[in-house]
Amino acid sequence: MSERRATVVGAGLAGLGAAVAFARAGVRVAISDAALRAGGRCRSYPDPTLGLTIDNGNHLVLAGNAAVADFRAAVGAKLPLAGPRHADFAFADCAAGTAWRIAINDGRLPWWIAAGSRRVPGTRIGDYLPLRRLLAADSGTIGDHLRPEGAVWTQLLRPVLLAALNTEPEDASARLAGAVLRETLGRGGAACAPRVAVPGLGAAFIDPALGWLARHGAPLATGRRLRGLGFSGDVVSRLAWSDGEQRIHRGEVVVLAVPPWIAAELVPQLCVPDAHRAIVNAHFAVPLPRGAPSILGVLGATSEWIFGHTDRVSVTVSAADRLLDAPREALAARIWEEVRAALALAGGAPLPAPLPAWQIVKERRATFAATPAQDARRPVARTRWRNLFLAGDWVQTGLPATIEGALRSGDNAARLAMRQPLRYGPQQ
Asked: 5-44+201-274+371-417 sits in which CATH class?
């Protein structure tokens, strides 16, 4: 790029990842977002009902997520991500009244499945062997490769894959599931240890990135919506913003890091995922009770994962389209009773029965549906315009819609624009 300038449209993690990559390479980058605050779906904000700063949703990352580690190191994020030292996962079944823990050993050789105290209760080594088919899968649904039955499926695989894919696992892409398993279980427990942002996503990701970018001459403009693109031959020549028009000069590049439905409105004939799945999150203004695990998988309930903080307990429900029209107060009351029961089963001190201050956050289009058909609609980062690139967890990264995938897509888009080798596949 002769003038080494870039415009990044969108300040979610994909856009911030692209902007950081540009700035690190000495490219003069401008970032704009239609929202009034950065972060996209990974944002923190003060909630007046709770009197607390909360995240719009709970986003779990893993110790082995390379792009997460690279991004946080680049922007100098100081607050460590919280989580157990090892890949220990606690579960509780509200319907059965049982609780158990999965303890995956750190190394690649999975000897944990040979230890009765570490694996799913009541299972044998042979019950885990079918996982090899999913590790090697490159087409079809998970249900095409595995029988969705048995304790390994119901008590481990299904809850983990539902959270990772935000799609009913039986119908989800085996290719994406295999990628998740290869980068987690396939690399051993050291890569699987769960990590959460404490006190929140803003402090762990967004605020350090914005501060670093501002210090490197790349401030963020918010409340600025891109309304259209102008094309001349094989390049983008202008951007029509809500506050005026921007000419794109020779050698400049543009990275669109916006939701897929917005990208489809802006870019002619762009094929993007067009089916999405919801996520519902519930937040309660009570601290995690003494003795309870900070991350708890829940079965036999509406709740699926509980995340404990010093000032609140939060719950995530994936593939939650069925809950979008549920009355908010009734939903909060139901989830609160499940939280009380599940945390008590897992060893936590009793929580009071009255419903505390609560908030329900419904993300209707949280992620694309991770089915084979929708995965096939994901575009690569390059477009037919040589100065226009795409970024977002919906762009083809080989991973489902996750923080890791979003950050990889942003870094990939910037590196393609700068004609640098990619750090994260697939090649595009």
From this structure: alpha beta
Write down the architecture of domain 276-368 according to CATH: Alpha-Beta Complex (3.90)
Helix 158-165, helix 174-183: angle, nearest 10: 100
Instruction: Note whether 5-44+201-274+371-417 and 276-368 share their fold.
Output: no
Q: How far is CA 258 from CA 17, 127, 244, in A?
A: 13, 42, 19
Q: What is the DSSP letter of 39?
A: B
Q: How far apart are CA 370 and CA 304, in angstroms?
A: 18
Residues near 363 by beta carbon (within 8 Å), at least 6 away in sequence: 41, 56, 57, 278, 279, 280, 281
Do the beta carbons of residue 112 and residue 222 sit within 8 Å? no
Q: Which has the closest alpha carbon to 325: 358, 300, 355, 362?
A: 362
Tens digits of residue pLDDT in 129-179:
999 999 999 999 999 999 999 999 999 999 999 999 999 999 999 999 999
Domain ranges, ordered by start, for the chain: 5-44+201-274+371-417, 87-194, 276-368
The DSSP H or E segment spanning 154 is none
Task: Give the pLDDT confidence of 79-103 residue by residue, as tens digits.
Answer: 999 999 999 999 999 999 999 999 9
SS3 404: helix
